[in-house]
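Why does this matter for the project? Reviewers at the last site visit asked to see concrete outputs rather than summary tables. In response, this paragraph embeds two records directly. Each consists of the residue sequence and, immediately after it, the corresponding structure tokens. Nothing has been edited or filtered.
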Amino acid sequence: MTDVSTRVRGLVDRARREVASVVAGRGPAQSPTRRAADASAYWRDGDDDRWASNSHFRDSDAFADDASLWGRVGREHLELVRVAARAAGWTWDSPRVVDWGCGGGSTAVAVAPEARELVLVDLSARTLAECARQVAATADTPTVQVEVDVDAPEAVAGQVAGCDLFLSFYVLELVPSQEHGARILRVAAEALVPGGLAVVQFKYDDGHRASRPRRRGYAQNLADMTTYTIPDFWALAESVGLRPVTLTLVPENELDRRYAYLAALKPQP
């Protein structure tokens, strides 16, 4: 009964957030520059429970009702990557892994035993430290912490270069605009070695009003700030030099709705 009531409460809370997000998203769009500044301020300066939940910290409110959810999210991501790797003919061989937008570390912890090195990338030094701490508690895989600015992903290109596997989950819906997402994909394409694999998640626009990009009120709408239609995102990956292989849709999970996971290879010369 407790699990059922928790599930119902979660659905009600999510519905309220979606209604509030649509209402807050009405009005003229703010400029990408303004949204980028608001995003930077939110992720660097936040320190409340909502910030910790949005950052996917293991001990945050987001995971309080289900202690196993945090680890399960990471394991599900790892399985998605394994399925994509098989479909692409990509072989695990102690890869150098970039986890772009590592958050509190659920994905990094799951992937760490498979990697020879983890490059953790995030907007917040506090988040990077938490992610590295979680990895160190479960694996001896070396980590590199890379702090990145919302409006300058290219500035860390040299620190992520030479990776075999580029991962990015729960990030592209949080960026200030579709162009910011495109810039991260370009960095991924440049960072991967030939034959390397990228698996990135985005929120898809299914044609309904609630799935459209918000373009204003970053702190209130961050989880729906940027969405893509599926054909547009596939074409975007191709335009930056990646070769899409698989696309996995997850209409709903414990955290949110309308998730899509694209796996793409960097072609051999």
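We now turn to the second protein, recorded in exactly the same manner.
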Amino acid sequence: MGQGVRAFAPLLLVAMLAGCVLPPGGGQVRFYGLEPRIAPPAKADGPVLAVRRVTIPPYLDRQQMVTRGPGPRLALAETHNWIEPLQAAIARVFAEDLGALLGTARIYLPEQDLPQRPELELVLDIFAFEPRSDGTVVLDARVRLHRGEALALERRERIRIPLTSPSDYGAMAAAMSEALAELARRTAAALKPPSA
């Protein structure tokens, strides 16, 4: 009997040590993703859209969700993580929403090979993108779209989306998705048609 207890002791020690590396508070880690909010077009033969580059600030380039406030304070949610790198998620979701508004499913992300020359090339620079203590999500971004060598659009937008539940991280992810959709709507509305 004593020998069985001694044999079990190392397993018990491993289990105890494993408990020490759980996130603070011992909570289960939950994962969230950004999702397109604009329905894809029935006819999707619009211009080829290529995402050339998306940049995000270093403070957002992490797995944990980041919240801001009050004041300049930032907080990392150790048990609430992104399911994919935030930079890649922003590129994918914004391109899909913008593509839906432009009537195209021919969308290419930075890591994908282009089968043909794109008609539109997108550069998206994110300056701020996080839920805030005032119950909103703020997106501060600059969009540049090129048609060939010509700059077709350059504009900076600051978008604020109210949170339905300020302490719910699922609601935060949904509001961030909606902020990207609103940026896509404003971009599509401002995009000048190609000159005749």
